[in-house]
Amino acid sequence: MNPEKLKKLQAQVRIGGKGTPRRKKKVVHATAATDDKKLQSCLKKLSVNTIPGIEEVNMIKDDGTVIHFNNPKAQASLSANTFAITGHGENKQITEMLPGILSQLGPEGLTQLKRLASTVAGSAVGKATLEEDDEVPDLVENFDEASKEEVAPKKELNENDKGAGDKNDTIVIEEKKEAPLATPEA
């Protein structure tokens, strides 16, 4: 390999002077603790005040899920119109929190709740129809054969009635006899 090309490649890789080791890039490990410290310093610049006495915070999303914080640390800066809620958040369905969350729902939340109730009612009706279908007994016999057996006695009855002259109803049953397609020649 050409020594001049090799020196150019080494010069591109080198970060410091002649005595430094060659490194392609510096790796910076960012932890959650450093992110939290940066966030707290930014909040301190906004002069936020801690709001005491908040037991829970619920953030209701459009898709019907709720981000629930139990005993969070709530901070507010009214001048910057900024609120910060820190703590352990859990994603839950709105149906899991129903009795206690009703007072917190706004008009959009109530429409979501009505829509959810209609889907639940629709599924309950669907389950009821499935249960009704379970009560229907299974078919065990062939009804075609039973109907053929009923037609034969009716035919005999009608022939007997015609002899008496009481009824004018007739049942016509046509029997087709198939003619042979080809006659065998001997």
UniProtKB/TrEMBL annotation:
Gene3D superfamilies: Nascent polypeptide-associated complex domain
Region (Disordered): 144-186
Highest taxon of the lineage: Eukaryota
Record domain NAC-A/B: where: 33-98
Pfam families the UniProt entry points to: NAC (PF01849)
Biased composition (Basic and acidic residues): 145-179
Family matches, as PANTHER family: TRANSCRIPTION FACTOR BTF3 FAMILY MEMBER (PTHR10351)
Family to which this protein belongs: Belongs to the NAC-beta family.
Record-given protein name: Transcription factor BTF3
